[in-house]
């Protein structure tokens, strides 16, 4: 929006009552950001666990005494088998999936997990008509009652004949058992898991923002490990934009893990380190069926129900029931992460429809852990998730592949075992930051922040909802700039996080098309040079740095431009000589103490850019780098008086032009303060 304003400046006094004025016509430019509602990215996972009748059990590979004696030291080998639908993807999507996404996702888990080596080829069992199966004492193979089905499916994909065992049947009384056709295919060589991949626009693809879904379909006989699964990629939801590759890759990794073991349909089959079941088995060798969940019921050695009494919400307290994963390595990892030695286990998601609850980590507690139920920002596969996979009894984890989870780290027991309302209230009462939670409602002018790990420019995702939230999700007694009595309508935009508002990275959109993201380490998120008002620089060596409370502005000799968002930005940095050094437009600014304000005055692209950065504590960005070379951050000191930072000046034709610019800036600020 542009306004032409006539500004008159006093330039001299002729007599006591006569004042001479010189007038300038100056163009004010108000630049509004192109953030729209829905800026926060959320992709829910709806893992529809396979029902008992959809899973084939008892695939014989090797005798039990051989399998159980083997060490878990074989790097996991995953074979990908494409359905014809994958080849029907358009060329760009096929190349992305075939050359980048699937190979990288599979390679990650092949590096992260090890299994017991299988000496023989895997031949999958055929499906039986009406799922009616006989097992004969002393015989490792299963037999179908009367007949095998003509086709054996794994998800949407038909298993090829060469991957299948022969068809074995008995008559209706379990007698006259034998092989229908003695010819057998080669099976699946040099693999521990086969993944059947399709790319069909199914009904499930149209629920939410589903990009892919996966599940297992067959389990081996001795230890119940899943050995075959399927994944369907939703063609219309596959984005080839570089800035969305991270989300797509993380989604595929996430779905693969559901098929490998993180699934409500597999919890009851977990085993201890010696290969013994953690859940008792019925006479048929399987755990008891939970009819409501349509899954095998696990024991309290796997998941335990715990009640959190006096869970504080707006208006009082309630009792909160939670489900905790209590396997041994998970318990140890979650205690270490939060620095809470009494934590009973890792909380599982309790919201969402079938496929979200219980099959993911709780979003409020583990926010950007990749195995939570919705993608929001910077997904990581942490030690916690690798510990769970090790606790299945089927894998050994390579913890060097774990990615650091900063959310909640070392924040103590209260962060996990009390409501976010109680956490925020307790921190406010002692004058401390309520991060990682927040209480700023998004409004104009837009003020951004930094995520706690400084990986992204971020906003508080506190929003107004259309109706009051359920009472046990109302987390505020009062909110700045919100009318008293309306607090019940406000909560975080992520429902799975119990509507707790927190600092979240976001995407910039124009006409609902993603322009760029706010993650600092992706070079594709750099703003266009004409819109880079705060001289940001996104890239591998960039982190989020706070601005001061004053808006950044750009000046020329005829215009003053102020952008309607500010608060933080991404900048490159280096750690050298015990100090943190910020880099802005090829100039280096040394930080001598936390909270130091560095004024920026740089001419770039014919504009004078004016603003200020706030130095973060040196240890936040440099501690690890310095420690690696035996150095450390120097103590905070006042900047020496001899230190002069770079500062450009705008030179214009009129000697009085700078005064005009200052007056214009003042008028603009006053004008903005009156906008509602």
TrEMBL record:
Cofactor(s) this protein requires: Zn(2+)
Record note on cofactor: Binds 1 zinc ion per subunit.
GO biological process, one term: cell division
InterPro entries: Peptidase_M8 (IPR001577)
EC number of the protein: 3.4.24.-
Xref: Pfam families: Peptidase_M8 (PF01457)
Active site, renumbered: 255
Keyword Glycosyltransferase: no
Family: Belongs to the peptidase M8 family.
Listed name of the protein: Leishmanolysin-like peptidase
Organism: Cuerna arida
